[in-house]
Design brief:
298 residues, globular, alpha/beta, 13 helices, TIM Barrel, single chain
């Protein structure tokens, strides 16, 4: 499957501008969450998504803004103490938040369970929490209210709090058979390079997810915008002569086996177009990727 550029709204400063340009460039996916842009991301995206039904949207459940926390307490789905945590996968809250998301955003092709590793320190308790979340999202999918669901994680796979295989098993158990687990989202970059290394060695979460026909979203490919400043021009030239550090960073992620979508949060049409051009270039040879990883390791 060809790797594509998708709009990520976490670091995006001007969501309407960024989304308006992305849809003119036939972007396939826009990724968001109810807590992004201080809880305003959904409302900012909704008008553009309504005009462009062909553009898919993924959102999340788990984290919430201060305003949504207050609303949840008022609705009786969270206590003050639970609201202060800033994250919840309690079944009643998940339903309540997802209903609010659909009412504001208009639709959701994928709902990610957002950083479930925040939900419980005990692995068994975490897996049970995921089972409950998946069971609820299966209901929404069966009713046609969402297209499917996934897991967006920052550290859960790296710390082995769960694996792709375990998530698939939980989904099958929650669904009683055929499930609607459709996607994984995890950081892939020259800073968070372990998924790249394992994919080059023909194993790891990226290849496991693709083998299960899951969409694989690479988040934070530029490490929040900091990565280009961390890459030397010499390293960029190793990736491809003439590449800038930003191009080199994106080219590596776009060439990593298993990645289908790269999330980029830029409000600049020029930056988006340059990134789209880079992502569309032919994948780098595996030997080039290994050389880059080896240089970083020294």
């Amino acid at each position: 499957m060809t790797t594509e550029l998708a709009l990520g709204t976490y670091h995006c400063q001007d969501i309407p501008r960024a989304a308006a340009h992305a849809v003119t460039q036939a972007v396939s996916w826009i990724d968001t969450a109810p807590n992004y842009r201080s809880g305003r991301a959904h409302a900012l995206l909704a008008p553009i998504l309504a005009r462009h039904p062909e553009t898919k949207v993924s959102t999340k459940t788990g984290f919430f803004s201060k305003a949504e926390a207050a609303a949840a307490v008022k609705a009786g789905v969270l206590t003050d103490t639970q609201a202060n945590a800033g994250h919840s996968l309690r079944p009643e809250f998940l339903r309540w938040q997802t209903d609010r998301t659909l009412a504001t955003l208009g639709r959701a092709d994928t709902v990610f369970v957002h950083n479930p590793e925040h939900g419980a320190d005990d692995r068994e308790a975490l897996h049970e929490q995921l089972h409950q979340a998946f069971a609820i999202l299966e209901e929404y999918a069966h009713e046609g209210r969402i297209g499917g669901y996934g897991v967006a994680t920052w550290s859960g796979l790296q710390t082995a709090a769960f694996s792709v295989t375990k998530l698939l098993t939980i989904a099958q158990e929650a669904a009683g058979g055929h499930h609607h687990l459709r996607a994984m989202q995890l950081p892939v970059s020259l800073v968070m390079a372990k998924p790249i290394v394992t994919a080059l060695d023909s194993h790891g979460p990226l290849l496991q997810a693709r083998a299960a026909d899951l969409e694989v979203f690479a988040s934070s490919p530029l490490h929040g915008g900091a990565l280009p400043g961390m890459i030397t021009q010499e390293l960029a030239e190793l990736v491809e002569p003439g590449h800038t550090p930003a191009q080199a960073a994106l080219r590596v992620v776009a060439s990593t086996p298993g990645v289908t979508q790269i999330l980029l949060g830029t409000s600049s049409p020029a930056h988006w177009d340059a990134a789209a051009h880079t992502v569309a270039l032919p994948p780098l040879p595996h030997q080039t990727l290994r050389k880059v990883i080896d240089v970083l390791a020294t």
